[in-house]
């Protein structure tokens, strides 16, 4: 029997998994990558540590993808976090599960994951073509026949498109796939950056550039109404704010800004203390350190970088002695500590976004095989699809799972 010839476009997490699985299923497999090296984006994920997956169960996992998460149910039932961890352990990669169920390579090196994947592809017999940006798909009478790059063409029985979204374009993930499939009749839901830092009052946040706050509560207000909240870590940067809680809230902020709605962040810097307990704490500190200046006393409540900002925004003199703080000033401090408000005016560009929101409409892809419902033999996987979750390893698991299903499906496609 003639082997199927499978062409995989894009050597990211989804593409590498798809190529290896197609080869293991008996197909002659060619992986074509526009960059010089495979796995460039994978090598920088998780701040260079590569959050591979999460230990959460399938229902919780799907919930992190919002209303579109149900599309992944069949892929996850075929290849999920346990299978992914077993896969990497079999390749000799030790894994560690950290807070929140996040799974990382034990050595904390994302590049090690890329090396493991590329070594595995060699073992599977996958041929890799580098420095070859695909610029068109070859389709005849609704059936995929191959791909073209420059003046060359590569023919095959199935094509798996794994070109990624539009985030981190320097790694090769620059939105090429959308332009390839749109002429074929696929609908592209509006793409926009997700898991992206927000621009918020740079003149204030810039004074705290690099400050990392843990255990704070961040609420997102849209049009004056509370839209979402998250608890955890936040980082100030010269343009505004980032960190896990901000990234989680960012897509709602991006969509609200696109709709010209007012967006505001409200930070509770002391979530463990209600107003009454915080007021008692302030009274106690001011009484105990009554001869000290307020700028010094507040160091017991705030990081050094925040003290001056706090006093400027509340309009209280840093030289005020603890014994001289009035009830009104104490109230201003208490309100600020529980409701530090920042107006969000924009977001950082795609090159700083971890993932892309939007993408190929899911109704146009078969979730059982990842095959296009528009073109026979064309498979669409990973970040190209209108799927995105918050941080925690969810997006990479979706890439590996859809890649697994597509690779096996493409190897078994009936040729015409």
For the record, what CATH class of the largest domain applies? Answer: Alpha Beta
CATH topology of the largest domain: FAD/NAD(P)-binding domain
Mean pLDDT, to the nearest integer, reads 96
Biggest β-sheet description: 6 strands, antiparallel, barrel
* Alpha carbon gap, first and last residue: 14 Å
Number of helices: 14
- Broad shape: elongated
Question: By CATH's scheme, which homologous superfamily of the largest domain applies?
Answer: FAD/NAD(P)-binding domain
Overall strand count: 19
Number of domains: 2
CATH architecture of the largest domain: 3-Layer(bba) Sandwich
> What Rg is obtained from the alpha carbons, in whole angstroms?
25 Å
What percent of residues are in strands? 15-25%
Structural class: alpha+beta
Could you describe the 3D structure shown?
By secondary structure, the chain is α+β, with helices and mostly antiparallel strands. It has two domains: 237 residues, 3-Layer(bba) Sandwich (FAD/NAD(P)-binding domain), CATH 3.50.50; 151 residues, no CATH class. Helix content is 33%, strand content 25%. It is built from 14 helices and 19 strands. The strands form five sheets. A six-stranded antiparallel barrel has the order 12-15-14-13-16-17. A five-stranded parallel beta sheet has the order 6-2-1-10-19, covered by helices on one side. A three-stranded antiparallel beta sheet has the order 3-5-4. Helix 10 crosses helix 13. The longest helix is centred in the last third of the chain and has 18 residues. The protein is elongated and about 90 Å long. It starts with a strand and ends in a 5-residue tail after the last helix. 46% of the residues are buried. The model has no long low-confidence stretch (mean pLDDT 96).
């Amino acid at each position: 029997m003639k082997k199927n010839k499978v062409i995989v476009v894009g050597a990211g997490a989804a593409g590498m998994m798809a190529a290896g699985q197609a080869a293991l299923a008996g197909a002659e497999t060619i992986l074509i990558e526009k960059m010089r090296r495979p796995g460039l984006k994978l090598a920088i994920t998780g701040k260079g540590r590569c959050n591979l997956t999460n230990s959460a169960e399938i229902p919780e996992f799907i919930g992190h993808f919002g209303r579109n998460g149900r599309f992944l149910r069949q892929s996850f039932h075929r290849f999920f976090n346990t299978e992914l961890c077993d896969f990497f352990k079999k390749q000799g990669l030790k894994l560690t599960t950290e807070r929140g169920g996040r799974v990382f390579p034990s050595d904390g090196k994302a590049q090690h994951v890329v090396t493991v994947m590329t070594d595995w592809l060699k073992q599977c017999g996958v041929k890799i073509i580098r420095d070859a940006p695909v610029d068109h798909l070859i389709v005849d009478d609704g059936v995929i026949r191959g791909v073209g790059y420059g003046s060359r063409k590569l023919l095959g029985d199935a094509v798996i498109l794994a070109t990624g979204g539009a985030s981190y374009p320097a790694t090769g993930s620059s939105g090429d796939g959308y332009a390839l499939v749109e002429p074929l009749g696929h609908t592209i839901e509006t793409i926009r950056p997700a898991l992206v830092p927000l621009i918020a009052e740079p003149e204030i946040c810039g004074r705290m550039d690099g400050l990392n706050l843990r255990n704070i509560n961040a609420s997102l207000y849209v049009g004056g109404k509370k839209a979402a909240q998250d608890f955890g870590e936040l980082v100030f940067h010269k343009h505004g704010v980032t960190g896990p809680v901000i990234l989680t809230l960012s897509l709602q902020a991006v969509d609200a800004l696109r709709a010209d709605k007012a967006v505001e962040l409200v930070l509770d810097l002391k979530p463990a203390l209600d107003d009454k307990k915080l007021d008692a704490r302030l009274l106690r500190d001011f009484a105990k350190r009554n001869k000290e200046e307020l700028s010094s006393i507040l160091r017991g409540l705030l990081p050094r970088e925040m003290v001056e900002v706090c006093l400027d925004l509340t309009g209280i003199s840093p030289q005020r002695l603890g014994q001289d703080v009035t009830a009104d000033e104490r109230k201003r401090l208490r309100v600020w500590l529980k409701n530090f408000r920042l107006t969000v005016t924009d977001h950082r560009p795609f090159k700083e976004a971890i993932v892309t929101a939007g993408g190929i409409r899911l109704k146009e892809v078969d979730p059982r095989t990842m095959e296009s419902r528009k073109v026979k033999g064309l498979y669409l996987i990973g970040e190209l699809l209108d799927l995105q979750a918050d941080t925690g390893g969810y997006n990479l698991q979706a890439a590996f799972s859809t890649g697994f299903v597509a690779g096996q499906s493409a190897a078994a496609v009936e040729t015409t």
